[in-house]
Design goal:
Length: 303
């Protein structure tokens, strides 16, 4: 059996990591995906962090060496005994036995902080939403799900700012795909997707049409950025999606109408820009798996 394909999704707290990966898990099938939260490798619980005056964004607050060891084991297809951090109350639970499946998705804060970690991933995604938007998402999430007050969340964001600037944001330079969501003019989020040189991305230049239908490209040397309007015409978005699916015809069994779905409260919504982002990531996952199945070590062309 080919080794697992490893996707890294890195970004600051409440950057949208779970929103991006949820649709991918639905397409790939939960029975084929192992999920690992890098937060499980925190060295200190919530009370201890307060006593040490350290944030979870600092490498010293995490067992980086054990993370490196475990991720290498997963890439090799070997099981691990993974620690568990419980966000609900900020304490640790009993470790769990994790067996790698066809795909492994690792979400976290420091996934690209060391070279040993970076080498594990077949596909590296970094999420960098507009900071004002991320702060709103964090307040909404932590107040509704983690028992914080608004003032507590805002104070914690201020405490974390220095570590975020020092340790989290610099990791974007190691990503194959950097995704920045910003509020658009259509009641949806626009997506700015920077495609790095580490992987060969699908050529979408035939679909660039200025601002008329919602897709533009900005060249920047060795990488370029797709600007996907949240108000992109759904029919035009479907045409672009079809072109990407054609590039991975061997994975046509994964096709689904559920790409781009997200929830606000109990309301289910769909975003065409989110769907295109998810499909670009999916493209790299399934082509990497096909490459590994044929005996290669993956598709990476540069670090």
């Amino acid at each position: 059996m080919p080794r697992p394909i490893i996707l890294g999704v890195v970004g600051d707290s409440a950057a949208g990591k779970t929103t991006i990966t949820r649709g991918l898990v639905r397409l790939l099938g939960e029975e084929h995906v192992t999920h690992i939260a890098a937060d499980d490798y925190h060295r200190f619980d919530r009370r201890q962090r307060a006593e040490h005056a350290i944030t979870p964004l600092h490498p010293a607050c995490n067992y980086m060496d054990i993370m490196e060891q475990h991720f290498r084991e997963v890439r090799a297809g070997r099981p691990i005994l993974k620690p568990v951090y419980r966000h609900q109350d900020g304490t640790f639970g009993a470790p769990v036995y994790v067996t790698p499946r066809q795909f492994t998705i690792v979400e976290g804060l420091l996934g690209y902080h060391t070279e040993a970690l970076r080498e594990v991933f077949d596909v590296r995604v970094f999420l960098a939403p507009l900071e004002e938007l991320r702060r709103k998402w964090k307040v909404d999430r932590d107040c509704s799900r983690r028992g914080y007050t608004t003032d507590q969340v805002l104070e914690e964001l201020d405490r974390r700012e220095s570590d975020s600037a020092t340790f989290i944001r610099p990791q974007r330079r190691f990503a194959d795909i950097v995704v920045c969501f910003v509020p658009g003019d259509h009641g949806q989020f626009d997506a700015e997707v920077t495609l790095g040189r580490g992987l060969v991305h699908p050529d979408l230049t035939p679909f660039v049409d200025g601002d008329q239908r919602g897709l533009t490209i900005v060249d920047a040397g060795t990488e370029h950025t797709l600007a996907i309007s949240g108000g992109i015409d759904p029919g035009y978005a479907a045409t672009i999606e079809e072109a990407i699916w054609d590039r991975m015809h061997f994975a046509s069994h994964l096709r689904s109408e559920r790409l781009g779905e997200f929830t606000v409260g109990t309301q289910l919504h769909r975003s065409e820009s989110l769907a295109l982002v998810q499909l670009l990531v999916l493209y790299h996952l399934v082509t990497a798996r096909a490459s590994v199945a044929l005996g290669a070590d993956g598709l990476r062309v540069a670090s």
